[in-house]
Write a structure and sequence with these properties.
2 domains; two-stranded antiparallel ribbon; transmembrane helix; mainly alpha; 11 helices; heme binding; about 290 residues; extended
Length: about 290
Amino acid sequence: MEINMVYVIHSLVWPLLACLFWWWNELWYATPVRARCKSLNAKLPPGHLGIPIFGDYFSFIWYFHFLLRPDRYIMSKMQKYGNNNNNNVGAYTTFLYGSPAIIACSPSLCKSIITATTGFKQGWPSSEVLGSHSVITIHGSRHQHIKGLLTSEFNQPGTLTRIAQQLQPCIVAALHSWFQMGQINTFHQVKRVSLEFMGRYMGDLELSPEIDTLDKLFSAVNEGVRAQPLNFPGMPFRHALQEMCVKEVHLAEFAPDKSKGNCGLGHSLLKMFGNEAEDSTSQHSS
């Protein structure tokens, strides 16, 4: 009799726990939003938020990193939930990188999101890795302001001429070294030359002595920018935070002497950003 009771309890408890595990994200995140949407006569797109903490992360990684077919990830959503659900065309709810999300895959919806100046902001954990002052992590009016400064600076004919003049020696030297090497990894070598040129152009930094070390540091940081934001040993996000500190130390060793007045266009551009930011701040405060 006792064995039968234990069997009955297990047969009831484990299915309930499994259902709670499967629907926890839906109950915790989606249910309150659906209640608010109902009062506004709106509706969430179809989809499922997956399991707690990870959500749809494993399916996302399977299609993107193992199969190398991100289009199949979207196609799986379309086949499962349809491609025409009232007004929610080309949008699906999911749970990625520690947060509930809505995936937009239709051209018209993506265009409206990209061109919107308000209502949307950077949602990746890159702000913790790259810092709050990175151009990638800022949003809103400040992002529009800096974007305008970059566009106006780099679209000038004189700036493009200086870029071409500084880029040509780097490319010529790289071609000579590639010829001597015989067989090269094109992706790695092009990335290496791009990093070396950007350091020389933007910061007047001579990165050649440790270009391979810096390349590995930048690669580690890049992997952590769009990784699951889990700050545990062995996770890409934690590794990126550590490598970011090491990268800053390495770049500081190659910083030019500002007293010599040879700080490159990058420092002039950063100085211009600082002056514009101060002017903008004073205008807003007044």
